[in-house]
Design goal:
single chain, TIM Barrel, 2 domains, 19% strand, alpha/beta, eight-stranded parallel beta sheet, 431 residues, binds alpha-D-glucopyranose, 12 helices, Immunoglobulin-like
């Protein structure tokens, strides 16, 4: 028993995320986020110039002295925040998240913590100020991505050996998070990335030349801490309603998952982020050829929303600040599809998901059955529904679908998908 207790204690001490529900937003404050379903993620920074992904500094072992002069080439002459916001809007996205600072440490906003920012680059602009203003003017929910970790600091790699340096990096995080939440008006989402203990100390014994997070079996046991509760208490004072991601080391208002989806988290708001084009999150020349098909985008969205999550789709703008035309086009097509069927996506809740055929989304008045693969027998068995189903109709043409409701559930039969749509939706109206 005592051993078991010690085991639990050791694990909770080194858990990657601190559970503190006192900082969580209320259900009501999270409502807009949960109803939003689709967001646009934007990775933009010095790495965009090199076109080899946002990790290029790390993966090619480029030292700061060699990397940082890229800011003299950071002109982004065609950057227009209004375009970014329009692209999001026309893509059916209800919120945006833009990298204010990625792991390379370069800020797209004016910071008093040094001068490694876009104001002191060839662009001479505060891109975040322009973005936030454009988003606010368009009524777009405004998210900011911020990476506490910074590859320029030896203290990140060896937090105990270079403790003073690590503390300086931490001071930078507190200062810059404060700046971001003070200088730009209302911020709706603070999307931390890389503030977990598991990411610390790569230069230590764990380092094997590649990037990976520590397994729970070998937690970071050093003395440095980001103190995520302290950090997020400050955040709540500055912007009480901002929706916070889990990657500061505090559990966050929502959990994030990336590309290799590991399954829906238990009873927590969650978001899947992925690239519209495979590969890196920052711009690469191949992002126009590796772009996801429209069907895959729609089906991914349905998979996520039927499991009650949000989808955050990423694009990496080109060095000049514009988003690839092929990606803009795909986003428009996504909207083209979902705007026809928006009642079945936005403002719904997740229902059930079954990898064999698809999933459902629900409201008080209806269940939307999203058929991604029509089963061979053209039949879908749904679990029991407490209300009476008064009708079943294809949203596509409002034609009747055949169904039987009993205590055992609702059975839909003779499902037909003449147009081979990526998502065939049947609306069950509830009485
Ligand atoms: C990872 C990566 C990063 C990317 C992020 C998006 O944490 O380090 O490059 O910004 O995922 O979720």
């Amino acid at each position: 028993m005592a051993l078991f207790f010690l085991f639990v204690l050791a694990n909770s001490l080194h858990s990657q995320y601190v559970d503190d529900s006192t900082l969580l937003l209320s259900k009501n404050d999270m409502k807009w986020w949960r109803n939003a379903k689709l967001g646009l993620f934007i990775h933009f920074g010095l790495y965009s110039i090199l076109g080899r992904g946002e990790w290029v500094m790390w993966s090619e072992r480029i030292d700061t002295a060699t990397y940082s002069p890229l800011r003299d080439k950071f002109i982004c002459e065609k950057f227009d925040a209004k375009d970014w916001v329009n692209i999001a809007k026309e893509g059916g996205c209800k919120y945006m998240v833009v990298t204010a600072r990625h792991h390379d440490g370069f800020c797209l906003f004016d910071t008093e913590f040094g001068d490694y920012d876009s104001r002191n680059s060839a662009a001479k602009r505060d891109l975040i100020a322009e973005y936030v203003e454009a988003a606010h003017n368009a009524g777009m929910k405004t998210g900011i991505y911020y990476s506490p970790l910074d590859w320029r600091y030896p203290g990140f790699f060896f937090p105990d050996l270079y403790r003073t340096n690590a503390e300086e990096m931490k001071k930078q995080t507190y200062t810059q998070v404060r700046e971001l939440l003070t200088n730009y008006g209302k911020i709706d989402i603070l999307w931390y990335d890389g503030g977990e203990d598991n990411w610390l100390g790569y230069g230590g014994l764990m380092w094997n030349g590649s990037w990976y997070t520590r397994g729970f079996e070998k937690p970071y046991t050093g003395k440095f801490s980001w103190e995520p509760i302290k950090l997020n208490k400050m955040v709540r004072e500055l912007q009480p309603k901002v929706v916070i991601s889990q990657r500061s080391g505090w559990m966050g208002d929502f959990e994030t998952q990336e590309v290799g989806f590991r399954g829906k988290p238990q009873k927590r708001p969650w978001e899947l982020c992925t690239n519209l084009s495979g590969g890196a999150w920052g711009w690469t020349p191949s992002c126009t050829t590796s772009i996801m098909s429209l069907d895959s985008c729609i089906q991914l969205l349905v998979m996520v929303v039927s499991q009650d999550g949000n989808l955050l789709l990423n694009v990496g703008p080109k060095p000049d600040g514009t988003i690839e035309a092929a990606q803009v086009q795909r986003l428009k097509e996504i909207d083209g599809f979902i705007s026809k069927y928006d009642e079945s996506i936005y403002n719904t809740q997740g229902g059930i998901y079954d990898a064999r055929w698809g999933g459902t989304t629900v409201t008080d008045k209806a269940i939307y059955v999203h058929v991604l693969n029509v089963p061979f027998d053209r039949t879908i068995n749904l679990p029991p529904v407490s209300q009476k189903v008064s009708s079943a109709r294809y949203l596509r043409d409002n034609k009747k679908a055949t169904f039987v409701q009993s205590d055992d559930g609702v059975v839909l039969t003779d499902i037909h998908d003449k147009q081979k749509e990526p998502d065939l939706i049947i609306k069950l109206t509830l009485k």
